[in-house]
């Protein structure tokens, strides 16, 4: 992991994401890319300088954001980290995902809202859209969440699809942070697998790594989201990772699970979208 993108709207939500990104960057020696997107016409980057002059307010916002972002980058939080800053215009979620893809980001760390947080800025729904459209893993972090250590990572999936890339990313992060990895299979009445089948699915991806210990668990519950949250109460992970899908996958099912975790989990959520390069 060498590049971590941190979109910011200068809110406390975004600052929490930045703190999480700094923790991971220090473990992995990654560079942090601070990005602010000024809401502008979708084709802003393709407009001529003459046409952009027709939007003086946007140009003013971009100039002001550049100054503010430099101040953020100079914060003591980033001491010892390599930080780069970028301010661009366009549709916010679209530009975040496009920037991550064009600059080959390894991860996006973004602020997320909890169920009890009503002062929504752009980060709320933007987070969900970024998760759907990003081609790299997205780490969603709620306000006031602080990662002091990562000793246990919970990875949940039905393990029916090829999750090798996601598991590899989690394993690398676990190795850097000296964490163990727990695989979790949630059995529900509508999608039930016998113990032998579930264990075989997980065993396929459990690495024989000398530096990372893998454990496997099967948990029975009436609902996937409820099962994950109930298991988390028992296992107390420092981070939870899961597979989600883009709009052409199975959004009605999988995004509801992701949304539920973003709202109710007390730890950062790392989501992977299958089938995106």
UniProtKB/TrEMBL annotation:
InterPro entries: Universal_stress_UspA, UspA. Signal peptide: none annotated. Pfam families: Usp. Gene3D superfamilies: 3.40.50.12370. Residues 2-142 form the UspA domain. Belongs to the universal stress protein A family. This is Putative stress response protein. It comes from Fulvivirga imtechensis AK7. The lineage of its organism: Bacteria, Pseudomonadati, Bacteroidota, Cytophagia, Cytophagales.
């Amino acid at each position: 992991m060498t590049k971590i993108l941190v979109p910011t709207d200068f809110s406390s939500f975004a600052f929490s994401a930045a703190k999480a990104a700094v923790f991971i960057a220090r473990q992995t020696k990654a560079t942090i890319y601070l990005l602010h997107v000024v809401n502008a016409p979708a084709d802003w980057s393709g407009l001529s300088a003459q046409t952009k002059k027709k939007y003086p307010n946007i140009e003013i916002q971009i100039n002001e954001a550049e100054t503010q972002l430099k101040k953020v980058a100079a914060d003591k939080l980033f001491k010892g980290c390599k930080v780069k800053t970028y301010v661009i215009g366009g549709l916010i979620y679209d530009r975040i995902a496009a920037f991550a893809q064009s600059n080959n980001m390894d991860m996006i760390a973004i602020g997320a809202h909890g169920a009890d947080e009503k002062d929504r800025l752009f980060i709320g729904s933007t987070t969900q859209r970024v998760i759907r459209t990003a081609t790299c893993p997205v780490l969603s972090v709620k306000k006031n969440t602080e990662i002091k250590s990562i000793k246990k990572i919970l990875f949940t999936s039905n393990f029916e699809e090829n999750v090798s890339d996601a598991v590899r990313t989690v394993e690398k992060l676990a190795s850097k942070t000296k964490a163990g990895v727990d695989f979790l299979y949630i059995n529900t009445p509508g999608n039930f697998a016998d113990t032998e089948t579930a264990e075989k699915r997980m065993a396929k991806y459990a690495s024989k790594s000398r530096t990372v210990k893998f454990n496997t668990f099967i948990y029975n519950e009436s609902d996937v989201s409820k099962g994950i949250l109930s298991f988390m109460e028992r296992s107390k992970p420092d981070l939870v990772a899961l597979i989600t899908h883009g709009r052409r996958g199975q959004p009605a099912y999988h995004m509801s699970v992701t949304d539920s975790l973003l709202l109710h989990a007390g730890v950062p959520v790392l989501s992977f979208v299958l089938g995106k390069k």
